[in-house]
C-alpha cells in the first residue's frame, strides 16, 4: 500500500520540527505585530519600525539561504550568483512599486522619474503590465525562473561542474549588474528603483503595511522550509544527493541528472525571486549593487556558517551573520569585511558542518543516549525499511560535507 | 494478386513482431522509447569495427565482438588492452570514432545517452565500487530500482509493498539484509562490491557489464560472487572483465582476450591459455 501524500508531507518533518515552526509562526504572525502596533513605545517589548524592517529583511535573507542550501547542500552545486535571482525578483516587484507612485513623483509625470530623466515618453514594452500587482508577483517568480532555466540548461547540459560552475555564475551576476547600471536599459541605472509610496493603494510606510510584509516574509520562510524538508526527504531528494556524491553512477542507473539539477536550480531561483520581491518594499530601494559578486558570496557564507545540507542551518546562518552585520556596521563598520572573512575561514577550517554540526557534536558528546533517543521519538509508522522516508533534521550530519 | 502479397507481408511482419522477445522495460520506465530489444538472432550485443582514439592513441582498434543472449562472457587482457574503454562505448560514456554498436538487432547504442542505455537494459558495475556512500544500502537499491526515473515521478514516489519486497529479496541475495539501514560508506570493500552488483540487479538489466567485480574480495566472497553470476546467466547476459584467473575459471564461460584494442583470441579458458599469441602477450617475448 502506498502512503498518502498528506501523510508523507507530515512525516517529512519530526514532531519537534512542526512544533518549532508553529512557535515561529505564532511569534512572527502574532507576537511581532502586537509588539509593534499595540504596545506603547515606552514598553520594553515594543519593537521599533527599524527593528521590524531589519527582522523582515533578515527573514527574506533566510529564504534565500534555504534556496541556496537546496542546491549547494543537497545537489552539491555551489552558486555564487544567487544574488542575481534575488535582485531580479526585487526589480520585477520594484517596477510595480514605481508605477504605484503615480503622479506623486518629483516630476509629477505618468512615468517613473528616472524615465522622465531619460526623456522617455512612455513605458518601454518590457515593462508593460508592470502596474498590475498580480503580473508583478508572477514576473518576480518567472523572471528569475526563466533566466535560471536557460542558464542552467546550457551549463548542466555541458556538464559544467564544481568551481567552473561557481565562476560562471559569478560572472553572470556581474554581467547583469553592469547591464542594470546602464541608464538606457530602463532599470533605473545606479539609483535603481526607490521612493516607493504605495502597495495596492495602501501606504508603504504605515506600521500596518510594515507588519503585513513582515508576516508575509515569515510565511514565505515557513513555506520554503516545509517544501524543502519534503523535497529532501523524497526520492527526488535522495537522487539529488546521489548526484552530488556520484553523478556517473546516477546516470548509469538511468536517471538524467540534467533534469534533476535543472528542476532544483530553477526552483531555487524562483524562491530567491520571491524573497527579493518581499525584500524591496521593506527596504525601500532596489539597485544593481544587489547583484554585486560580493553579495552572492555572502549568501554562500550564511549557508556555510549555519551548516550545509540541513536547511535549518541555512536559516540560522543567515540570522547569525546578518545580526552580526547590523551590529558591526553600527559599532565598527570598517571591521565588518575582516570579520566576515575571518568567519568564513574559521568555519571552513574548524566547523565544516557549521553551527548545526557543532551543536550535534556537542550534543552527542554530552550524552550519546539522548542523541540516540531522537530517532525513536519520530513519528515512524512505516515499515522498518522505510525509516529513511521519514528522515529528519538529524541526518547523518556528514551529508553536507561534500561540495 | 498484389493485394494478397501485401497482406501476406503484413501478416508475416506481425508474426515476426509477436515472435520477438518482448521486453517492456524501455517503454514503461519513462524517458525515451528506444525500441524493444530484438533478440531474434539470439545475439544481445554486437560490436563491429569499433575504433576509439584519444589524442592519437588507439584505445580500441577495429574491435569486433558479439555476445549471445544469456551468455556469460569473460574478457581478459593486459593493462591498456581497452577493456574499460569498450565498456565506456557500450554504456554511452565514450562515442566511438568509427564502428557500430548494437544492443540486440535494432538498438543503436552509439546514438544514445547513458540514462537511455541504462533504460534500454544495460547495467554497469565500475572497477572501483561506485555506490552512494551517504545513502543507506536500502536507499542505494531503492534508487537503482527499475522505475519511472523522471523528475515529476520521483517527487511523489513512495514505495509499494512489492517494491519493498523486491529490495528485501535483493538485499538477501547480496547478503546485506542485516546492514540494510547502514550508510553504504561504512560497508566493507567486498560488501560495497556486492551492493553495486545488487544495484545492477534492481535495474533488471538484460546485459550486465562487470568491471573487475571481485577486486578486493576475500576468497570466500569471490567464490560466492562466482556462484551468483553463474546463477544469473541465462536470464541475463553477463560480460565480466577480470584479472583473477581462478575466478574466470569458476565462471566457466567463453573467454575473450583483448590486446591493444582488438580481439586476440576467443574460446574456453584452457584453449585461450594454450594459445601461443596469448602467452606471448602475457609473458612478453
Explained architecture:
Chain A is mainly alpha-helical and 403 residues long. Chain A has one domain. Helices cover 67% and strands 2% of the residues of chain A. Chain A is built from 16 helices and 4 strands. Chain A has helices at residues 5-11, 15-38, 49-74, 82-101, 113-117, 133-157, 162-181, 207-233, 235-245, 247-252, 257-283, 293-306, 312-331, 336-350, 354-366, 368-376, and strands spanning 193-194, 198-199, 202-203, 285-286. In chain A, helix 6 (133-157) runs antiparallel to helix 11. Chain A is globular. By secondary structure, chain B is of the alpha/beta class. Chain B contains 12 helices and 10 strands. In chain B, the strands form 2 sheets. Chain B has a 6-stranded mixed sheet with strand order 6-7-8-3-9-10, sandwiched between helices. A 4-stranded antiparallel sheet of chain B has the order 2-1-4-5, with helices on one face. In chain B, helix 5 (137-144) runs parallel beside helix 8 (189-202), helix 7 crosses helix 8 (189-202) and helix 9 packs parallel to helix 10. The longest helix of chain B is centred in the N-terminal third of the chain and has 18 residues, at 2-19. At the A-B interface, helix 9, helix 10 and helix 11 of A face helix 4, helix 5, helix 6 and helix 7 of B.
